[in-house]
Write a structure and sequence with these properties.
CATH class of one domain: Mainly Beta
Low-confidence stretches: 1-53, 266-278, 280-284
CATH topology of one domain: Neuraminidase
Number of helices: 14
Oligomer: single chain
Distance between the termini: 5 Å
Radius of gyration: 28 Å
Number of strands: 55
Strand content: 25-35%
Mean pLDDT: 86
Structural class: alpha+beta
CATH architecture of one domain: 6 Propeller
Amino acid sequence: MGTSVRRRTAGAPGRRTGVAVGQGIAALLAAAGLLVTAVPAAHAGTTPDAPAASGTTPGSGTDTPSLVTGLNEEVAASGTAADAARGHLKARKGRYHIADTSAKDLTSVGTTTGKGGKETVRLQQKYKGVEVLGGQYVVRMTKKDGKRAVTGTSGNYFTKLKLDTVTPRVSEKTAIERAVGAVAAKYSDGLLRAPAKGQKTAEADFKGTAGDVTILPQGTGVLTRHITVMGTDPADGSPVQQEVYIDGHSGFPVMQYSGIQTFGATNTAAGATQDAATPAPDATLPAGDELVVKGNGVRYNGQKVDINLYRDTKGALQMIDYGRRDADSPFEGPMIATYDARGREASSASGVWPVGVKYFQPATPELGEEYTNSGAVDAHWAAGKVYDYYKNHFGRKSLDGKDGFIYSLVGVVSNGRPYNNAFWDGQKMVYGQGGGDYRTFSADTDVVGHEMTHGVVQHTANLVYAGQSGAMNEALADYFGNAIDLEANGQSMDDPDAGLLGEDLCTTLGPRECALRDLNDGATTSKNFIGVTYGGDNGGVHLNSTIFSGALWDMRQDLGAELADQIVYRALSAYMTPLDGFTEGRAAVIAAAQELGATKAQLKVVKRSFDAHGIVPGWEKALGVDTDSLLSKVNINNTGVGAGGGKYAVSRSNEDGSEPYSVWLGNTSGKGQPQLVSANNGDYNVYADTDGKTVVWADYASDAVRIMARPVKGGLTKQVDGIGSNISGLVVDGDWVAYTATNPQYGVTNVRYVNMKTGERGLVDGGLPYRVSGLPSIRDGKIAYVALTPDTSGNPTLDVRVFDGATGTTTKMPVSDTVMGVGQTAITDDGVFWIEDDDATDTGKAAVRRANLDGSDAVTVTPEAGEGSLYAYTLTASDDAVTVTTAPPATWWANDTLMKLYQVAPDGKGGPQRVSCNRGEQAYGAADEGKRVLWLDGTTGYTDLVTRERPAGAC
């Protein structure tokens, strides 16, 4: 059996490809494949104007310390807190190494005040006026008795930035086009499918919007255009919103992550298909209205509760709660509003408001069964409990700390079916309607607390929702969501079910069987960390979250709820910054405990809690593999690997991931040193492939994508083709090159070929708008590919074809008449292999098929159902073996639900075997000679190029 860590979710992870997550302070960049090695920078110097603090932690990849504690340094009491904070940093340059402390390049994000005159100032780093992603520094101060003093600082300020220009060469139009292409590729399930009835083949479902120019803090800085791509996931109709960063010089999509924060780790993301203004009531209400009408309703659990309603000028009741406003200021303060979104698509409720959505409007103050079953009572009541928790325990006024209004949309669906999830989209909570095994997702208070806490995190540390920072975001949402649940429902920490989340959501299962996560599982440590790509849970935000939340929950059990909650909230609100990972999170919690006066015994408990979950400096080094490493820390995103003839070709960046990707060539045996084959021209050189004699790759430049080729034995590099838009699936064999080209005019893809000897170029399918082709492979001048073309009646049909470059003829392979989807092809001396999906009822499984080049002797290598069947996503093949990458859907995230490689003989005899038992994601398999296969592996927390000579067998 494979190693598995139970992370139950409410939905199924989709089939995705990508690269592995990383570690250290740049958790976001790491999750995108832009990995930053956690090599500590030199300690900040101690000079006469910068006396040594009682605790100084150096930053990683910066001269600015990541944490300074124990200060008592007086600053100007007059003026704003932000001015005082900047003045302190300016006066202590020897400690902080922040050259420009002007308001232009160190912008105030906000100041919060707390008990005892505490002030926390968050400052956003900019470079020449351009925002630096995750560059945020915090200054903590006290102000009392007419004096103000700095007590400490923390965060990430990147001192190594040095860019010649902050004006991108890539146009907005090109950046949007390439971002949309990158998202479309991410949300492909690996197969080419016929469009749904009534849908046009060329219909594009993703749209991009240009945001601000942004600097990624790698090395001396990477200038990017930030593009938000929205649309609908073709697999299940759920909304999509991807934040994509396009390199400003070359136009390559160097990073993307989801912009939604969900309760369950499903394949859903955020997005919108409609736009409407927020239908919020005016805060200044007409005189004479009943501001608060006392109502009541019954929660899902049968408890009768009091809730506040509002009667508008027409006498209609609405689910709006003004009851938490001060009696002497009735027109100022918080508002909690709950909207009826039943039957509305989730894609129309994320990032914007569904057109015409209205508040729930009960006929009487006594809410009937409809309001229980819809989840309205639970959502409205629990939102008030969350507000009360943050106000009573921490003095926090609403999610934004400024009594901002609280909005909940209840009852959304996905493709007209139950949407078993909930999310925070940056401005409101959205709860799925539920169905089947699940109730409406507002039915459990910890879900409501979880989603609303995402709003608190956004307005404090703003932990980026990817990789380790995203896992910490989820961990904090789980911690406070569960704490609120226990308090609101009178449940003790001693209850065996106290650590369960989502345990009340199921219609038939008991709490333990229903729960999506358990903070008391006692087993989730850093040893269970799973290196996973954006394709898997946004870099493991749910999958790895209980490593951190488990430590926090242990601390809560041992210290008691009140002290632990105060420590965690202080760490979140005054110490953590957007790119913090587990190690920085540990340091923040310990520092917050010290600040709050924890005793030595209590500090020992805090440290012990993190130690028990393996969160200690250098924890990542303990992650092991059963593979041979060819290149470690390649620091690349979504570029793949090619192999053939005993050689491999792969893109690679430098140690901190700041350089554009270059193509390296090496021996698959691991002997010798890899050599650089692409030019150092500032472009991104990606999608490399080799047949052992020639190396090809795509050079992404601001004006075009150029197809480049160079002999393995050395010689001149030449451009063999070029295109203005995205490409994928680049392959080479002998004189022939093929790749999939995106046609932005029609929104389709076509396989293009090049004969490097004669210069002949063309499209295998003629390239007409109603024809689609992709997923090519090549051997001896013959190109196999998947085609989607209309039949004589105009109905789209799927098949596999082989184009003979020498004769220009095309041969069809024997694909089933009931085929629903066809996947990657591979040509070997045994013929043509492909993936074929003929059954909609097998929840994602697909067969591997083979036929001779003339279409004869078709056989099934692995079946679509039954023994030996696989969740086939893509494949690669040598003359001796077929290696299949699987991407199984699952009801919970675990090691075995991630992408894994299986190998089978060309005739299918003996059935498939696991290639490797590594934990973590295995992507971009590339067959070499014999049974040797290479891939990009995420087990170590980095993206490593690894290989095995033969299958591991059973794991």
